[in-house]
Amino acid sequence: MFTLGGTPYPGVPPAALADYLNEGQRMPKPRDCPADMYGIMKDCWIQDSDRRPKFTNIAQRIARILNKHVVSVRIFGLFHNSELISEKLTQF
Length: 92
Hints:
By secondary structure, the protein is mostly helical. It has a domain at 31-89. The protein is 42% helix and 9% strand. The protein has helices spanning 17-22, 35-44, 55-69, 82-89; strands at residues 72-75, 78-81. Strands 1-2 form a two-stranded antiparallel sheet. It is flat, with a radius of gyration of 16 Å. Mean pLDDT is 79; it is low at 76-83.
């Protein structure tokens, strides 16, 4: 989404991608990606799955980002003001 359809690991051959990731390498922050969203992405890429954020934590963090940056958003075919975004995302 934040690479705008671009290849996430340009220059890394597909056959070498697993080794690249196992070495701790990760995709750099895409140009159009907010720093707080990239922080979520990096947390989701933590190699130890027990240390990765749970879905509810991710949803809450995204809701805070949306509440900070968005006045209204179209979610699930309905318009919700930013106060309801957090409520909707944390219902999952």
